[in-house]
Write a structure and sequence with these properties.
By secondary structure, the chain is α+β, with helices and mostly antiparallel strands. 19% of the residues lie in helices and 25% in strands. The protein has helices at 23-32, 43-57, 90-93, 101-113, 257-265, 278-281, and strands at 2-3, 14-15, 18-19, 34-37, 68-70, 84-88, 118-128, 137-140, 154-160, 171-174, 186-188, 207-209, 218-220, 227-230, 235-238, 247-256. The protein is globular, with a radius of gyration of 18 Å.
């Protein structure tokens, strides 16, 4: 088992809402498709986000529709049977969350990774319930979920709201797959049965890919307050939760502002309530 770390990163990189990357980290991100950064947020800053996280993950925000769902099972799964709890676009439902400290720090890092004007494309709260071995994110590439745009670059930040470990299902990546010339084929999770029929994107949001024998998985455990960053083409996923405690993550993705405008122009907001022609979007 390969585990990645970045011991040179930490609070000494912080100056206010700016977290300084090194030239080596930027190049590594371009080559490998991911980064690990320690202690991006302080304990007090994460603690200030905790009540909002619990509000959404416990299903207390009304009228979310499919934006409150289980990412490991089909839409319509009863709430009491959720395993991998997902709350999409929390600051859309609660504008008080906009411009929070995580956003400000992630924005400063995204601006260093890419030239141009980075904007937040979407965010979500994710939580794996205790002892839910099936609370898995199947291996996929984020770009497989999205419309075709002229500029695809994306920096997706995953903030550990509590320690992420191999046992509770931390992020895992296949380094370098971001540089593969073609996006891998994606299909809806659990697609197909004995009759050759199966789920589509109206049944289940989650997509999966076929792994290659050459894929070499690297695990990215994190301490609370630290982040991983991955780009839109890297093959990644996460395993189930084999522990007695929750695994909690705050995801925030940044893209070029022109790309975001192109998405919104066709009605794509990353909400699971969007009406989208998935056949035109899935590559």
């Amino acid at each position: 088992m390969k585990i990645a770390s970045n011991p040179d990163s930490g609070q000494h990189r912080r100056q206010g809402t700016h977290y300084q990357l090194t030239a080596e980290e930027i190049e590594r991100y371009k080559q490998d498709g991911y980064l690990v950064l320690n202690e991006v947020l302080t304990e007090a800053e994460v603690a200030a986000l905790d009540p909002w996280f619990e509000h959404f993950i416990q299903g207390r925000e009304p009228n979310m529709g499919r934006d409150f769902c289980d990412m490991s099972q089909p839409y319509g799964t009863p709430v009491e049977e959720f395993q991998l709890v997902n709350a999409m676009l929390p600051s859309h439902y609660r504008p008080e969350l906009a411009n929070n400290i995580f956003f400000q720090l992630a924005q400063s890092i995204a601006n260093q990774l890419y030239d141009g004007r980075a904007g937040m494309d979407y965010e979500q709260f994710l939580a794996k319930k205790p002892n839910k071995k099936q609370a898995e994110f199947a291996m996929h590439q984020d770009l497989g979920y999205w419309p075709k745009t002229e500029n695809t670059w994306t920096a997706t930040f995953s903030l550990a709201m509590n320690d992420a470990t191999v046992e509770n299902g931390c992020l895992q990546v296949v380094p370098g797959t971001n540089r593969e010339p073609e996006l891998r084929p994606h299909r809806p999770k659990d697609y197909g049965n004995a009759e050759g029929e199966g789920l589509n994107r109206d049944d289940s949001h989650t997509l999966v890919i076929e792994s290659k024998p050459s894929d070499e998985v690297v695990y990215l455990p994190l301490r609370r307050g630290s982040v991983t960053i991955h780009d839109e083409r890297i093959v990644h996923g996460s395993g189930g939760n084999h522990t007695d405690a929750w695994r909690k993550t705050y995801v925030m993705a940044f893209r070029d502002e022109n790309t975001i405008a192109q998405e919104r122009a066709i009605g794509f907001t990353h909400s699971h309530n969007d009406t989208v022609d998935w056949e035109k979007i899935i590559r």
